[in-house]
User: What shape does this take?
Amino acid sequence: MKQMKQIISFRPRATSKCRLTLMLCAVAILATQAPSSVSGQSPTRTEGWVVLPVEDYRALRRAAFPEDREPEPPPVDVTLTRVDYDLKVEGEVATGDARLTIDVIKEGWVRVPIPAGLLVREARLDGKLVSLVTPPADKGTGTPYLVLSRPGRTVITLNIVARISSVAATEMLQLPTGISAVSRATVVLPRQGFDVRVSGGLLLDKSETLAESRWIACGRGNELLTFSWRRKVEDQRATLPLRLRGTITQLVGLGEDITHITAEVQVEVLQGLAREVRIRLPEQLTVNQVSGATVANWNAAPKELSVTFLEPVEGTTRFTVSAETKLAREGQLDVPLLRLSSVEREAGGLAIEVLGAGEIKERDARGFDEADATELGQLISSRQSPSLVAFRMRPGDANTNRALSIRVARYATQAVLTANVEEARYSMLVSDEGKLLVHSRFAVRNNQRSFLKLTLPAGASLWSAAVSGKPVRPGRAPDGSFLIPLEKGRAGEEAPVFAVETVYLERLPAWTDKGRARLSLVAVDMPISRSSVMVRHSPAFRVTAAPGTFRVQPYQPPSSSVLARAASEPEAVRPSAPGRNEMTEALASRIQGQAGAIRTSRNLPVRVTVPAFGPLLFLVSELTSEGQHPVLEFDFQRERKRGE
Assistant: This one.
């Protein structure tokens, strides 16, 4: 070896457990470093000295005698837990004590900072005077601190002086809380008659005696706790007699059973303070609600309503009264009036409307003048009743004679049409085998109805339904009819026209060589103004319409724009006359294709159309009543082939 290592030698002895551990570890290290034996012979094991490097010995010793880990130091040395002030205001300063609750955590000497901004006259610890240390200006902020060496909780009492500042007749006292989590202050002012406000905390209690005013507040951490007070201003308005001026606007709705009254009341205080307002009520009037931003409570006694306010009103306030009473349905009526009590001047207006079918025939007013409803405020001008009459109060005081008598005439309510089918269009494909496929389209105008009720002929099955071109899923009524959801028009507007379409299949008796066929169409629960039917039949038969509700006319396009479809209507007038086999095959392929579309659409509604095959017969009819099945009859006869 080029460099000699420092070694240590010892003779292992079985005198202690630690030495045995050192020996075993040393043997293990030597065994790993010993050269391999020659010819597979193991080396001779003899007792003797073990030689180790100093670094290995020290590592083995540290493993045998581990050192104890020193505990981690506390995160802080000392905490200012609580600050309690007990001060008394004397002129321009406040004097008293500040008790600091301190928890010392670290062993040894620690510094306890005193809240900044306090003028400390003396400090005591356990009743003994202690000294505060103020660092030099070049080594700190100049905040005094106290040096302690006793772990645990300590209470330090500081005798302090705080300055009182004054701004615009308001005096303020600011108390620092330092880094304490809890702060509390008691301030005594040797006078009374002050309004106090606390910022940076919460005022817990205030009390006044003949000699002093006491305030207790709790502050927030790391914020200045500020007391500000000013002398109460004597309000002479409270001692003056009350003078009021009011405006009351009433809306009276004469219903069939109950008369509803809504009154807006505005009170203006001319002198004094208004803590409540009283309103005279007519007999048998029930007050339901009094609402307003300043209303605290209200009490409705017989013939009088008292409304109290949250704070005495010295200006203007307003509120709303809702009430009801029982009056005769018609005839001569005395309108119930609400009157303000103890007002020097009463103004406002009154409006009466008849709810339902009726009108006001005669009126006799005393203390009122007829007026336009738009001049009496939002409550009355927003009403659009055709039977509304309005009056304006003549200026006067609370004792002015006012009365209003009217005569009401009622009329019987008649039902009006709220839904109608302007035009119905039917496309029928009838085969001599007794199969009838009908495509019906309705131009509907609706205001209130939610569903269109369809009643199919006996034995018919509905294939598809659509509203405004969109397939829908109809409901099923208890009597077996179908319910199609309808669109509704907006209130106050004319309802637009939209289309309702259905396709259904019906089984009929097979045609013979000659006979009469009777076809019944779907019935709807709305009146139909005009109906037209396009009948296509097998070219092997000659068909003649029988006299009845429908009459034969040349083909005409739909009069309703929602039924005029560019894709299907031209096909109706196309003079196509395929053979019987061609018509049957085409109809079968069309039905199979639509059935396949139904299978691949995962039960979604699909629209089914009627193929245009065979000769055309066009019939029209007017004014079909609701719930009626339109019926048409025609005679058929088989055409003879040439040579027969």
User: Anything to note?
Assistant: The chain has a mean pLDDT of 81. The radius of gyration is 52 Å.
